[in-house]
Amino acid sequence: MKDSLLLLARIPAHPDSRCWFLAWDPSGTLLASCGGDRSIRIWGKEGDSWVCKSVLGEGHQRTIRKVAWSPCGSYLASASFDATTCIWKKSQDEFECVTTLEGHENEVKSVSWAPSGSLLATCSRDKSVWVWEVDEEDEYECVSVLNAHTQDVKHVVWHPNQELLASASYDDTVKLYREEEDDWVCCATLEGHESTVWSLAFDQSGERLASCSDDKTVRIWHQYKPGNEQGEVCSSADPSWKCICTLSGFHPRTIYDVAWCHLTGALATACGDDAIRVFEEELLSNPQQPTFALTAHMPRAHSQDVNCVAWNPKEPGLLASCSDDGDMAFWKYQRPESQPLDGDEAVGFGVADHYPPALLPFLQTTTKEASG
Amino acid sequence: MALVSGLLSHALGRLLGLPGLRSGGPAMEQDKALEVYDIIRTIRDPEKPNTLEELEVVTESCVEVHEIGEDEYLVIIRFTPTVPHCSLATLIGLCLRIKLQRCLPFKHKLEIYISEGAHTTEEDINKQINDKERVAAAMENPNLREIVEQCVTEPD
């Protein structure tokens, strides 16, 4: 199982500090990293090596906790412990801070762009989630302050194709929000975790949501719309969410991040035991009660806690990770041969054998094996 | 008896070349616990001109060490704050974490708890002092940082 994750490169992204988060741009060619040294670094590939293309050092006075790219790839948002969120505009290889969003009372923990590109969400230790609207003139306006959580909000993420927002909190819950008659409201609360929920990830369809927690489990939640054929009760016009799977017993310490690959469906986790794990749904399992198998486990992926895992949006199997040790690492994930994707015989490892034909033109062919 | 089984598992581990078997045993863990205690006992109380040892906020027996991997240990500390004051307890937790982060030479994972029954809101405090994001943010607060520095810095 150790062979399913191959180390491609390890880079001291934020030396003498901790690297908190990584985000791939929509084209999959740039990676933004941020950390305790108060800087953001933009990384790109030159030949076989990852090089730092840009350092964005003047935006924040304290740790930068998360970064997020806009869907068009021209903007980067950064969330900081200094209580602000910076919006950086990219022109060629340069970045310029065009706006600073203020308002949160203390540390901003997360920022996320909606797929439309015209909405942004932030969350903070002040327990609130803010929704911002951005217009064609790059003007940002806060349109809602949501106080649904009772504690520190750790993460926000938008649904991949609906204007639905999810948040994860120190209060052990996940909450969902949508716009209802010009007002943003909390439309669902997902309970079940027994401690802080650190991160969230929607699958490609948006039908499922994965959450990871200090309680050492990952939970998979499924959306049931009113009138659903499974007979799940919805008490109102809102869809209800039900926990359909809990991955427990795999992680000995807090799980800080979970990432759901939109190309392959693989689920990666970042754990406080310094390891990275990958899970895949067993295809013969019942979709309403799926089972996920552990398909890769890399102990000591880093020398300290792994804080973030991020799948490249264009290259299947390319995973980036970062850690409290300040390093960033790149991995190649290959589904182990013993677990074929479908009922048919698996024929070798080629990308073409496992992915839907429609995706093939978008997938990069792997070049020579990186030594690593 | 514990010492014998420790030596036995150590020998077995070496013989079979198995990295997973605990090579150190309880004796090693005891050593590590003392190493930890040596570092924390001189931390000064945020309010009083005494060390945590003098005030019995920490004692030798409040440190637990378990080997969790090759040369890696889980350190658990249960401290007893002198007064049931929430912010003081959190501050002590912070000092313990910072000092060990800086001074403990071996690879470790750290858990800090208020000893059971020592506080009314101990679950709340325990959750906060074990949340590394909260700890990191607290240490970027200049006032808090100053207090912690004063408590953990060894006098010349």
Automatic annotation (TrEMBL), chain A:
<comment type="subunit">
    <text>Component of the CIA complex. Interacts with CIAO2A and forms a complex with CIAO2B and MMS19; the interactions with CIAO2A and CIAO2B are mutually exclusive. Interacts with CHD1L, ERCC2, IREB2 and POLD1. Component of the MMXD complex, which includes CIAO1, ERCC2, CIAO2B, MMS19 and SLC25A5. Interacts with WT1. Interacts with CIAO3. Interacts (via LYR motif) with HSC20.</text>
</comment>
<dbReference type="GO" id="GO:0071817">
    <property type="term" value="C:MMXD complex"/>
</dbReference>
<feature type="repeat" description="WD">
    <location>
        <begin position="299"/>
        <end position="341"/>
    </location>
</feature>
<dbReference type="InterPro" id="IPR015943">
    <property type="entry name" value="WD40/YVTN_repeat-like_dom_sf"/>
</dbReference>
<dbReference type="InterPro" id="IPR036322">
    <property type="entry name" value="WD40_repeat_dom_sf"/>
</dbReference>
<feature type="repeat" description="WD">
    <location>
        <begin position="22"/>
        <end position="43"/>
    </location>
</feature>
<protein>
    <recommendedName>
        <fullName>Probable cytosolic iron-sulfur protein assembly protein CIAO1</fullName>
    </recommendedName>
</protein>
<keyword id="KW-0677">Repeat</keyword>
<feature type="repeat" description="WD">
    <location>
        <begin position="190"/>
        <end position="221"/>
    </location>
</feature>
<keyword id="KW-0853">WD repeat</keyword>
<dbReference type="InterPro" id="IPR001680">
    <property type="entry name" value="WD40_rpt"/>
</dbReference>
<dbReference type="GO" id="GO:0097361">
    <property type="term" value="C:cytosolic [4Fe-4S] assembly targeting complex"/>
</dbReference>
<feature type="repeat" description="WD">
    <location>
        <begin position="57"/>
        <end position="89"/>
    </location>
</feature>
<feature type="repeat" description="WD">
    <location>
        <begin position="101"/>
        <end position="142"/>
    </location>
</feature>
<dbReference type="InterPro" id="IPR028608">
    <property type="entry name" value="CIAO1/Cia1"/>
</dbReference>
<dbReference type="GO" id="GO:0051604">
    <property type="term" value="P:protein maturation"/>
</dbReference>
<comment type="function">
    <text>Key component of the cytosolic iron-sulfur protein assembly (CIA) complex, a multiprotein complex that mediates the incorporation of iron-sulfur cluster into extramitochondrial Fe/S proteins. As a CIA complex component, interacts specifically with CIAO2A or CIAO2B and MMS19 to assist different branches of iron-sulfur protein assembly, depending of its interactors. The complex CIAO1:CIAO2B:MMS19 binds to and facilitates the assembly of most cytosolic-nuclear Fe/S proteins. CIAO1:CIAO2A specifically matures ACO1 and stabilizes IREB2.</text>
</comment>
<feature type="repeat" description="WD">
    <location>
        <begin position="146"/>
        <end position="177"/>
    </location>
</feature>
<dbReference type="InterPro" id="IPR019775">
    <property type="entry name" value="WD40_repeat_CS"/>
</dbReference>
<comment type="similarity">
    <text>Belongs to the WD repeat CIA1 family.</text>
</comment>
<dbReference type="GO" id="GO:0016226">
    <property type="term" value="P:iron-sulfur cluster assembly"/>
</dbReference>
<dbReference type="Pfam" id="PF00400">
    <property type="entry name" value="WD40"/>
</dbReference>
